[in-house]
């Protein structure tokens, strides 16, 4: 009898036919292994799962081995194992784990940039294993995106304010000036598509042999959707549409030597039109929280008074820095008398002497000046991010803390 095992660390799954002889033989061999290695199964933590075995056989096996009977679905390596489509309820541990992490960070005074980094590095790493095993339902994907979006803009799990920028834009690549946060649905498609690639190329794998034996009777599994197959197998088989959408046919996929989920993910996302000002945020080594405020300003998404007035939040839209004109992005950066004085002082350190103008004119000029990798371009990008951040910070301190600094103090 061939004994099939799947193991990870101290977790072990053993498979055999559902008859007493096969199970006894498997258990005898395992006991020999235990005597040789000293590794013994913990009866309190071990279970036996049956599939299609008669009740009499089940009772006999349970009596012989002394283990308890387990029932599907159960969790292995953090994910549920089931013979059926995984229900929305069974994804709750994934959602709970993400929510738990967010709640730990709620009371920390994290900047937008800090929260963005946690979303990219921690929260999305939690769902990576699930994305490579299951086709995540749209409802689950939406729930995860909502939790991450709410955490970014409100620092918690309860939506209490509007998102400054739509989540779809935040997931766009850096070449269009966005944050390149992972698009879970597209990543999930790329990850599951790798399973179809395995079916097409890794024919020495046990599960691949099984699929080909039962569903590959036509000589190929490409484009074949067996009606009797499980929901998961059908979803894997349907991934040929993902490949074909980006122009990868069966022959091309078969000749991919080393499959890259990241490469397919980029192909699924498609081409994007570059924006000139991307270099202000992509190639900027300034403080991350400065860059994030600059990013919002470049999208005209800072909560300036003209925007707040359209939502009925404020009535007075006069600029708090100069008290001469209405506050909007173009005025605040850098037509405002106060901010223009700050802005004119800082570039002088780089021997740049030019009169401060409005936001659109300044960014247009900076696009030309910051081309290339020269030190002057790098310093100017840092200067622009720092100036926007400090002016925005001064504006907020005057409103909420009733404190004020002079342009010279701010530029120092």
Automatic annotation (TrEMBL):
Question: InterPro entries under this entry?
Answer: RT_dom (IPR000477), RVT-Znf (IPR026960)
Q: What are the residue boundaries of the Reverse transcriptase domain, all occurrences included? A: 1-81
Pfam families documented for this protein: zf-RVT (PF13966)
Under which name does UniProt file this protein? Reverse transcriptase domain-containing protein
Q: Which domain of life is it from?
A: Eukaryota
Q: Recite the lineage of the species.
A: Eukaryota, Viridiplantae, Streptophyta, Embryophyta, Tracheophyta
